[in-house]
Design a protein that fits this description.
Blueprint: E1 7-12, E2 15-29, E3 34-40, E4 45-49, E5 52-56, H1 60-72, E6 80-85, H2 90-95, E7 103-108, H3 111-120, E8 133-137, H4 140-146, E9 152-158, H5 172-181, E10 182-191, H6 195-212, E11 217-224, E12 232-239, H7 249-253, H8 264-269, H9 275-282
Parallel strand pairs: 6-7, 6-9, 7-8, 9-10
Antiparallel strand pairs: 1-2, 2-3, 3-4, 4-5, 10-12, 11-12
Bound molecules: S-adenosylmethionine.
């Protein structure tokens, strides 16, 4: 079937993903990126940045839950959490479900992402007024460089792809600053693209850079994400001075909040590695 102009398509490197749209709700060029919002026929509201799908109503819960709960239930006592990027506030909402978190600071370079999310994805922003939430609009690279050494328990990097303002968020220099900002037992989680498409180009180099920056253990998580290229996504976890042991598995079993995707069985299975992925990442 030929696609007419009622479809949004993300097309990159010989692969296209298309969503049929009812209407374009918003478009603007910010100093950092072009943001578009659409109402789609089957996935609800869609946010696009620079032509790439960021989130849809229908499937964002998988990504946001997997960016937050595995790392928070792997760290022994995550009190001070920093989210770099994540301007749609979905990861912030998940992080604040953890009562042991005393402060969650979200640092997105582009305030317009958050303002548009408040308007078009209000359910993702429902915890923005939580007294533990701090919303800053600044470059995450600068924020981490200036952070007090040892002051952060968990850093979650919920960024756009490694181009434009997010490019430096995938560098060894940035990971060194993260390592310094983290306290004992500190952990980092970063969205790391598709196991099928980006293991050689992004995920393996990310593992190498994190180890070069000093992280002792690095682990790949994978999960479905049907509106991202290949429909399959990953997050990379790194631990400052312990092995990534998922040691709070029991707490995951007894989590005091609702989720739609994540549970204790997913927690246990999230690090299970398909064979090609295991070979490329762990030899
Ligand atoms: N889930 C999405 C994905 O994987 O495509 C990411 C969503 S979130 C909207 C990405 C955010 O990263 C954007 O709001 C963007 O402004 C932010 N960002 C990009 N580079 C950044 C930087 N250097 N510092 C802080 N935020 C940054």
């Amino acid at each position: 079937m030929a696609l007419d102009n009622h479809w949004f398509s993300e097309a990159d490197k010989g692969l296209a993903l298309s969503l049929r749209i009812r209407e374009k709700l918003h478009e603007e060029q910010t100093p950092f990126q072009k943001i578009e919002i659409y109402e789609t026929e089957t996935f609800g509201t869609l946010m696009v940045i620079d032509g790439f799908v960021m989130l849809t109503d229908r499937d964002n819960f998988i990504y946001h839950e997997m960016m937050s709960h595995p790392v928070l239930y792997a760290h022994a006592d995550p009190k001070n959490v920093v989210i770099i990027g994540g301007g749609d506030c979905g990861t912030l909402r998940e992080v604040l479900k953890h009562p042991e978190v005393k402060q969650a600071t979200q640092v997105d370079i582009d305030e317009r992402v958050t303002r548009l999310s408040e308007k078009y994805f209000p359910e993702l922003c429902e915890s923005n007024d939580d007294p533990r939430a701090r919303l800053l609009f600044d470059d995450g690279i600068r924020f981490v460089k200036d952070a007090e050494p040892g002051s952060v328990d968990v850093i979650i990097i919920d960024s756009t792809d490694p181009i434009g303002p997010a490019e430096g968020l995938f560098s060894t220099a940035f990971y060194r600053d993260c390592f310094r900002a983290l306290g004992p037992g500190g952990m980092l989680a970063q969205q790391s693209e598709s196991p099928l498409l980006h293991t050689d180009s992004i995920i393996r180099p990310m593992h190498d850079s994190l180890r070069t920056a000093g992280f002792l253990d690095v682990l790949a998580l994978n999960f479905p994400q049907c509106t991202y290229p290949s429909g399959w996504w990953s997050a990379t976890l790194a631990c400052k001075d312990n092995t990534v042991s998922f040691r709070r598995e029991q707490q995951a079993e007894e989590k005091p909040f609702e989720t739609l995707y994540y549970n204790a069985a997913i927690h246990r299975a999230a690090g299970a590695c398909p064979e090609f992925f295991r070979r490329k990442l762990y030899g």
